[in-house]
Amino acid sequence: MTAPWGTYRLTRFPEDPRDRLRAWDAADEYLLRHLDEGTGEVGPVDVAGRAVTVLGDRWGALVTALAGRAGTLTQITDSYLTQRATRANLDRAGVAPDAVRLLSTQDAPPERIDVLVVRVPKSLALLEDQLCRLAPSLHAGSVVVGTGMVKDIHTSTLKLFETILGPTRTSLAERKARLIFTAPELQEEEPANPWPLTYTLGPEAGAGPAEGLTVTNHGGVFCADRLDIGTRFLLAHLPPWRGPGLIADLGCGNGVVGTALAKHSPEVDVIFTDESYQAVASAEATYRANASRRPGLAQFVVGDGLADVAPGTVDAVLNNPPFHSHQATTDATAWRMFSQSRRALRKGGELWVIGNRHLGYHLKLRRLFGNCELVASDPKFVVLRAVKDR
Q1: What residues have CB less than 8 Å from 236, skipping those under 6 apart?
Q2: Which of 45, 108, 167, 306 gets the most CB atoms within 10 Å of its CB?
Q3: Per-residue exposure over 287-299, b if at least 16 CB sit within 10 Å of its own CB, e if not
Q4: Residues pairing with 384 in the sheet
Q5: Are the CB atoms for 279 and 307 separated by under 8 Å?
Q6: Which of 140, 101, 118 shows the shortest CA–CA distance to 31?
Q7: Which of 233, 343, 231 is nearest to 279 (CA)?
């Protein structure tokens, strides 16, 4: 990536030489040029000696370019994988590990923000939650600049900036990217943050074994206000686990699947794992609200799937893999999750997968496991089961 201050070699995490997806895009480059040169009527932004916070940096491209130029520099992300990529990119650029403060969306935000840079996320709920959390740290002299591809910036996006922070306008589009300029207005009261959202699954939700569960969703977690139809389909065909065992809810989201299994199979231990800090916080809240008195244990892990789980120790993995990495459609994440599952499962252990039928997950599972059973299907989804038999 070429920025006003130099050229940087950036990679995603996990690094894969076959991956053709870049760790930055035109929106990152547009914002960095604006900070250095200005854009039309809006002048450049002097970050020297100032407290700069970067929200939603995809793979660390923005903080890598800004490192050493701000007074203090903080990155806030919901993604564990982004934090890993950021550390690698900073190290490659020769930046000292303590030059950038890496925070998650669940950490307390900086007390003072002079310059807030926002990489607009796909989720409006995540944007709303984070702007509400960061608003009290802004002051009358703060500068707020957002960036994103044109297709990601909607009227609803601008309305959030305007409602929570202050008057907002946009730049002209450049290489299909756009900037957002907001002038923060001090408010007597902190903006009301509707997140996290809590609700109870009633019979109308078609939740099967999850009926009656109290669910918590932090901003940005998939299907925040209802049970998504894929999860509902998996729950309808997932049998209770007999006796003790170790079950992994891989890519756990709000933890509904793992919590439902734990509630109906109280002797099992459950690992809830996701690369999203918001998701794991949601899963822990969901579990605590429903299964706190059961004898089985629960672990809540923000990380790279099952990478840190000891091989051959898990009895079953439950998985609804994503097929997007930000806006890019890819099967790389699913393939990685399936490979991690096979490694973590004991002999005879089972991987249960729910997915859109057109994605062809059965072919990948047969390559990895040598077998794949179609448990259930409808016009949109399939539930698949693969057994580690060797």
Answers
A1: 206, 208, 376
A2: 306
A3: bebbbeebebebe
A4: 353, 374
A5: no
A6: 118
A7: 231
CB neighbour class for 303 (10 Å; exposed up to 12, middle 13-18, buried from 19)? middle
User: The sheet that has 268-274: what strands, in order across it?
Assistant: 298-302, 268-274, 245-250, 314-319, 345-356, 381-387, 373-377
Lowest-pLDDT choice from 102-111, 139-148, 197-206, 361-370: 197-206
Return the structure tokens found at 250: 């891989």
pLDDT confidence of residue 192 = 93
Matching residue, tokens 């089961």: 385
pLDDT of res. 324? 47
- The residue among 207, 202, 338, 180 whose CA lies nearest residue 264 is 207
Residue type, 74: T
Computed on alpha carbons and rounded to an integer, the radius of gyration of the chain in Å comes to: 22
Q: Is the peptide bond before 14 cis (omega within 30 degrees of 0)?
A: yes
Tokens of residue 234, six digits: 């998996």
Question: Which amino acid does the sequence have at 186?
Answer: L
Q: How many other CB atoms are there within 10 angstroms of residue 48's CB atom?
A: 8
Evaluate if residue 332 carries a pLDDT over 90. no
Burial degree of 183 (CB within 10 A; 0-12, 13-18, 19+): middle
User: What are the beta bridge partners of residue 306?
Assistant: none
CA distance 350 to 337: 14
- C-alpha span between 132 and 128 (Å, rounded): 6
Alpha-carbon distances of 238 from 21, 170, 229, 385, rounded to whole Å: 35, 48, 14, 10
Q: In 3D, which of 55, 151, 60 has the Cα closest to residue 105?
A: 55
- Could you give the count of Cα atoms lying within 13 Å of 352 in the half-sphere of its Cβ? 26
Residue type, 383: V
With bands split at pLDDT 50, 70 and 90, how would you rate the model's confidence at 207? Answer: confident
Helix, strand or coil for residue 82? helix
CA-based torsion, 222, 227, 232, 234: positive or negative: positive
